DUF6249 domain-containing protein
Amino acid sequence: MSYQTEILIPITFFITTFAAIFGLRYMVNKERMAMIEKGIDISFSKSQPQPYKNLKWGLLLIGLGLGLFIAYLLDFTVFNSSNEDMNKKVVFIYFSLMAIFGGLGLFISYLIEKKETLK
């Protein structure tokens, strides 16, 4: 890689990120100003409280961590991925177990929320 691309890539990344954030913020403010001018109540667009947000994130991250840990254990005990060809196949186990346990965490969060709202 040349010296110019080593400099241009980070600069382009930061400029693009700044432009995207600025553009989104500008469009949201413009939309709100148009709604105020038309007399539309903008209070409905305010975010509603989400009491189970932390529970959902916590169970999702616990599930992802558990899936990653089990994939690691399977990789080095059952599969013993020492050769390069087997190592490529084991990568799918990491992603699949993370998805399965992350989804399981979200499902448990759903069951807990459903149980609490029925009370």
